[in-house]
Amino acid sequence: MAEVAIRDLGVGDVDALLALYEHLNAGDARPSPEAVKAVFAHPGLCHFGLFVGDVLTASCNLAVIPNLTRGGRSYGVIENVVTHVDHRGQGYGQAVIRHAIEQAWAAGAYKVVLTTSRKDPAVWAFYERCGFDSGDKRAFVIRRPATA
């Protein structure tokens, strides 16, 4: 059985990460090299990858955001949660999310927020199994209008 490990991702992992993102949002435009460098250099933003052997199998990112409420304690936002379609249901997604939550607590965050655009109740149940409470807050989203 292959070894499973979770680690921080860096610029050198971008090809594997973008390939994994095809299982999240198929057909997304590839970011420029400059955008990749800027994302990985952004303070407070971490990308975590779960590897089975040397294959990136699951990932998420965590932004830890400074805050002036709650006694000045930061909060975390987890986004871009994805597990390769061939490896779902094996606990890899939960493991990488738990890792991100632990990192948020280590950074002093008082809460972690996660949103999903998926409408599948099984996906919602997955996040609840990870410890998230769908009834605690309500999320609202606005997207930038397409430019002509």
Automatic annotation (TrEMBL):
Molecular function terms from GO: acyltransferase activity
| InterPro entries reported in the protein's UniProt record | Acyl_CoA_acyltransferase (IPR016181), Bact_Acetyltransf (IPR050832), GNAT_dom (IPR000182)
Q: Where is the N-acetyltransferase domain?
A: 4-148
Q: Which CDD domains match?
A: NAT_SF (cd04301)
Q: What class of enzyme is it?
A: transferase
Give EC number(s), comma-separated: 2.3.1.-
| Stored PROSITE patterns | GNAT
Pfam families referenced in this protein's UniProt entry, alphabetically: Acetyltransf_1 (PF00583)
Supply the alphabetized keyword list.
Answer: Acyltransferase, Transferase
Q: Which residues form the signal peptide?
A: none
Q: Which Gene3D superfamilies match?
A: 3.40.630.30
**Per its record, how is this protein called by name?**
GNAT family N-acetyltransferase
Organism classification, top ranks? Bacteria, Pseudomonadati, Pseudomonadota, Betaproteobacteria, Burkholderiales
